[in-house]
Amino acid sequence: MKRLTCPVCGRFVYFDSLSCLACGTDLVHEPRAVEMRELAVRESCANRDAIGCNWLAEAPGGLCASCALTEILPDLSVSGNLLRWKRIEDAKRRLVQTLIRLHLPLVSRAGNRLRFHLLADEVQADGSVKQVMTGHDNGLVTLNIAEADDDRREAMRLGMGERYRTLLGHCRHEVGHFYFDVLVEEGGRRPEFDRIFGDPDADYQEALQRHYDEGPPEDWAEGFVSAYATMHPWEDFAETFAHWMHMVDGLETAVAYNLAEGADPFGGDPIEPLVAAWVPLSVAMNAMSRSLGQPDLYPFVIGPRVVEKLGFVHGLLRDRLASAA
Ligand SMILES: [Zn+2]
Ligand SMILES: [Zn+2]
Ligand SMILES: [Zn+2]
Fold first, then answer.
1. Which ligand does the CA of 175 lie closest to?
2. What angle do CA 116, 121, 123 make, to 5 degrees?
3. From 177's CA, which of 186, 200, 270, 314 has a CA 20 to 30 Å away?
């Protein structure tokens, strides 16, 4: 993320700032220009008062580009759901900001629109619980809003033996499935994909069963960015896509705060210098986290085969940047 400043006094403000702490100016974020403006009447997203969305409305009095993608909100009469919705939208704006920067289409050639349903588990009349599965289907991303509760998300992370579980990570992973359809399938990149990731037409249910019965292969870290990525080539791609986004956003932030130099993730750099800048930076971030008694910020190792996979994603997205330029 770029470093943002107050348009009036020039002090530094955050991506989610609603006003400048120094001069009190009300702020609105313009996601296409990636800049903060002084808020004018009817310019803000209609969700500003409800959930603190600080983005510019697409049309006066309407929603912003990110909130507009949410088709189903949680039931706001349920206590806690307003906060869950807010947390999910906070994470989603970071995702959508990157999608806008990359000029990625929000509709596939087949006509599937990227959209979000934020749903809760439901207790049925017979007392059983109908669980919401977080996932993707033809552009529809379903998120279980329980993921917005820190205690429940952490319990799920531990239960699944994962190293990392965040709302932003879910957002980035699930849209990875959508951009598999858009950029790989519809983009005619299957031969290269199949060579690097394997056959995405392999039986998914069988792979899922095997993953939960046997776990990942012992040497998974040599070829995959996460244990979950070993499950199926689709999941490998979605995990790699999410990590590409973690890396470019993290690198851009580091450059903006003078913590790294020379890497321009949204420029024309190939993957190798980006990874070469990211790896020592992530090691330093982890060391810093440990110094403060916190868990590792980026608990992952990027091996050579993962670099190849990240390079494939990077190529797809650089093509987008080049074609939009
Ligand atoms: Zn200011
Ligand atoms: Zn909004
Ligand atoms: Zn997935």
1. 3
2. 145
3. 270
Q: Would you state the pLDDT for residue 319?
A: 79
Q: How many residues does the chain have?
A: 325
Instruction: Report residue 286: phi and psi, to 5°.
Output: -65, -40
Angle at 89 between CA 102 and CA 5, to 5 degrees: 65
Ligand nearest to the CA of 11: 1
Backbone angles phi, psi at 45, to 5 degrees: -55, 140
Q: What angle do CA 244, 248, 250 make, to 5 degrees?
A: 115
Distance 260 CA to ligand 1 centre (A): 26
What is the pLDDT at residue 21?
97
Burial class (CB in 10 A: 0-12, 13-18, 19+), 284: middle
- Rounded to two decimals, the pTM is 0.96
Query: Torsions phi, psi of 113, nearest 5?
Result: -95, 140
Grouped pLDDT means (10 residues each) for the chain, 325 residues: 96 97 98 96 95 97 97 97 98 97 95 98 93 96 98 95 95 98 97 98 95 92 95 98 96 92 83 94 97 96 95 91 72
- Position 325 scores a pLDDT of 63
Q: What is the pLDDT of residue 323?
A: 73
Ligand 3 center–CA 96 separation, angstroms: 18
CA geometry: angle at 96 spanning 299 and 15, to 5°?
A: 75
User: Domain extents for the chain?
Assistant: 1-62, 66-163, 189-325
Tokens of 296: 């590792």
Q: How far is the CA of 202 from the centre of ligand 2 (A)?
A: 39
Partnered with residue 141 across adjacent β-strands are: 116, 136
Tokens representing residue 281 in the block: 């930076």
Which of these, 6, 18, 20, lies nearest to 44 by C-alpha position? 18
Can you tell me the distance from the alpha carbon of 152 to that of 4, in angstroms, rounded to the nearest whole number?
Answer: 33
